[in-house]
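Quick illustration, no need to memorize.
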Amino acid sequence: MRTASADLLAVRTITVDGSDVYLRVTNSPVDLEIRWSRDGDHRVAGSPVLFPAGDRSRRLLGTNFRAGTTFCLDVVGQAGQDWCGVVDWNV
């Protein structure tokens, strides 16, 4: 399992076929909608997943990625609000 808690918007690479991507928002004062998107091509993306403010549940963002896929996170939230969390993949 890979875990990253710093720079949540960084590009990541799937290394194991069939990997799933999860996110747990650990702190946010506002509701966020987050989805995965393919690095360099935002036309290829998952559906937005709602992360209500204060809810620290781990949520599935996407499934069954191929090895070598690069992805990043797209976030819709209130401008200027800081948030943090943990991304897990290859699980």
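The chain has one domain: 4-89.
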